[in-house]
Amino acid sequence: MSKENVIQSNDALRNFEYLPNSAHVRLTTMMALYGCSSATIWRGCKNGLIPKPKKLTLRTTAWNVGEVRNALHLNGGISHE
Q1: Nearest to 77 by CA among 11, 32, 18
Q2: How many Å is the maximal CA-CA distance in the chain?
Q3: Residue ranges of the domains in the chain?
Q4: Residue 77 pLDDT more than 80?
Q5: What is the CB neighbour count within 10 angstroms for residue 80?
């Protein structure tokens, strides 16, 4: 992961509460929000505990902030089983 991606992820996480519901966040931000690995994020998407991401471009996948907020509120995160 490049230094630029880490900085963008940190900024998105730090400002998550101020992002509009229409914004999107990348995998590194999701990992920080849920406090788990990328494999656990993808498993949560498959199991319906985490909203499915949107394909923004051929190589860019991101999650809608509004959907993530709703999932965090309803599920209170995910279990690490």
Answers
A1: 32
A2: 33
A3: 3-75
A4: no
A5: 9
What pLDDT is stored for residue 75 in this prediction? 78
C-alpha–C-alpha distance, residues 10 and 57, integer Å: 22
**Selection from 51, 55, 41 nearest residue 73 by Cα:** 51
* CA-wise closest residue to 21 among 77, 72, 59, 75: 72
d(CA 51, CA 81): 18
pLDDT band at residue 76 using 50, 70 and 90 as cut-offs:
confident
Calpha distance 11→45 (Å, rounded)? 23
Supply the Cα-derived Rg of the chain in whole angstroms: 12
Partners of 63 in the β-ladder: 25
